[in-house]
């Protein structure tokens, strides 16, 4: 039985961690919710209708690592960079959802369905990085294609939900959409959680652009799959777009492969992959959508792949449409599946 701290417990990902723990994803002795000073006194168990054995909410300064088995951080890169290693060096298994440690060579960057071996060698560091949400669904769809015919190039365009911007992002989309429906002239102003008004709009900029014109989010989509798939020379071109959708990220993925494939062989490889749901052309619809993926817990835990096709003029080029819940598959569930893997591989206990 584990004592698990959920750092950032009141945030969008932290709340999903609590809900998944409440659902019994790993055996829990006690959950310690960690939040900011202004959250002290909140009874998250009651607020969220949880039956988990919960300690009182504490701040990170007051979190005692003694007796703690795991800490899942979802409180941003600055807090992780400042606090995660303190807990890891005290023997706590830290799974960090931020970008703080992902590209550090000594820190495993893990998607359990893709590179579980990254957690094989004990005693590794007690610090494991959770990839970016849009990376996780991408590599879970790319892995079977790589095994089928070898990946050469990847081009991905993402259509990322407001929940990627947390509780504030969700609120801004709802309020902005309501304002426009009430008064079409209320077009919103630059700024806010996404830098631009999102309702009834598209914002092709997630994070700051670097001097090459790539945004922070696109840089993650280029670098993280190379580390997770063990393909340091994989060519990846990415465009990340924020779209006025509350939940679930969608991605249009185009790959070039080393070997020729058929639509049937690609569909079969995807359908045979645990944790993926493949939508064949004979199905109706032959594609997933954010609204339907978010509707049921069993679907929120899967990566959904549709519009599966091979380019008519090039049998080494395939295209996919990939949808997944960015709060579960892209963050909380992947982090807790890393804890599950840690239990199985002896990283814990
Ligand atoms: C986003 N991937 O969607 C980033 C962080 N969650 O905003």
Q: Can you walk me through this structure?
A:
It is a single chain. With 349 residues, this protein is an alpha/beta fold. The chain folds into 2 domains: 2-131 and 331-344, NAD(P)-binding Rossmann-like Domain (Rossmann fold, 3-Layer(aba) Sandwich); 135-326, Dihydrodipicolinate Reductase, domain 2 (2-Layer Sandwich), CATH 3.30.360. The chain has helices at 12-22, 44-47, 77-89, 133-149, 166-182, 216-229, 263-271, 290-293, 297-300, 328-344, and strands at 2-7, 28-34, 70-73, 93-96, 127-129, 151-160, 235-242, 249-257, 276-278, 303-310, 317-324. A 6-stranded mixed beta sheet has the order 7-6-8-11-10-9. The relative contact order is 0.16. The chain binds 3-amino-D-alanine (2RA). 3-amino-D-alanine is lined by residues 132-134, 160, 164-165, 206, 217.
The hetero molecules present are: 3-amino-D-alanine
> With helices defined by DSSP (H or I, 4 residues minimum), what is the helix count?
10
Helix content: 25-40%
Radius of gyration: 20 Å
First-residue to last-residue Cα separation: 9 Å
Give the arrangement of secondary structure elements.
Layout: E1 2-7, H1 12-22, E2 28-34, H2 44-47, E3 70-73, H3 77-89, E4 93-96, E5 127-129, H4 133-149, E6 151-160, H5 166-182, H6 216-229, E7 235-242, E8 249-257, H7 263-271, E9 276-278, H8 290-293, H9 297-300, E10 303-310, E11 317-324, H10 328-344
Parallel strand pairs: 1-2, 1-3, 3-4, 4-5, 6-7, 9-10
Antiparallel strand pairs: 6-8, 8-11, 10-11
Helix pairs in contact: 1-10, 4-6, 4-7, 4-10
Bound molecules: 3-amino-D-alanine.
Active site: 133 (acyl-thioester intermediate), 249 (proton acceptor)
Function: Catalyzes the NADPH-dependent formation of L-aspartate-semialdehyde (L-ASA) by the reductive dephosphorylation of L-aspartyl-4-phosphate.
EC number: 1.2.1.11
């Amino acid at each position: 039985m584990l004592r698990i701290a959920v750092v950032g417990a009141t945030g969008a990902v932290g709340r999903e961690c609590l809900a998944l723990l409440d659902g019994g994803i790993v055996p829990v002795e006690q959950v310690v919710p960690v939040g900011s000073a202004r959250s002290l006194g909140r009874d998250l168990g009651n607020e969220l209708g949880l039956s988990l054995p919960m300690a009182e909410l504490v701040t990170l300064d007051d979190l005692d690592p003694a007796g703690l088995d795991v800490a899942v951080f979802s409180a941003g890169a600055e807090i992780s960079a400042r606090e995660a290693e303190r807990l890891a060096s005290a023997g706590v298994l830290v799974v960090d959802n931020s970008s703080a440690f992902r590209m550090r060579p000594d820190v495993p960057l893990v998607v359990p369905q893709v590179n579980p071996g990254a957690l094989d060698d004990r005693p590794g560091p007690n610090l494991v990085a959770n990839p970016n949400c849009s990376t996780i669904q991408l590599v879970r769809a790319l892995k079977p294609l790589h095994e089928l015919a070898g990946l050469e190039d990847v081009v991905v365009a993402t259509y990322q939900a407001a929940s990627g911007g947390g509780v504030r992002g969700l609120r801004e989309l709802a309020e902005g959409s309501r304002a426009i429906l009430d008064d079409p002239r209320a077009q919103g102003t630059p700024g806010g959680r996404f830098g631009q008004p999102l309702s009834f709009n598209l914002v092709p900029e997630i994070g700051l652009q670097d001097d090459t014109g790539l945004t922070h989010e696109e840089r993650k989509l280029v670098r993280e799959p190379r580390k997770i798939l063990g393909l340091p020379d994989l060519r990846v071109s990415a465009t990340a777009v924020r779209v006025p959708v509350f939940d679930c990220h969608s991605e249009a993925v185009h790959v070039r492969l080393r070997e020729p494939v058929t639509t049937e062989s690609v569909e079969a490889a995807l359908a045979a992959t645990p944790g993926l749901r493949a939508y064949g052309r004979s199905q109706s619809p032959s594609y997933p959508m954010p609204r339907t993926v978010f509707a049921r817990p069993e679907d929120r835990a899967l990566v959904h792949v549709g519009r599966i096709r091979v380019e008519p003029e090039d049998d080494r080029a395939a295209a996919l449409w990939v949808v997944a819940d960015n709060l579960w598959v892209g963050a909380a569930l992947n982090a807790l599946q890393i804890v599950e893997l840690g239990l199985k591989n002896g990283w814990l206990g």
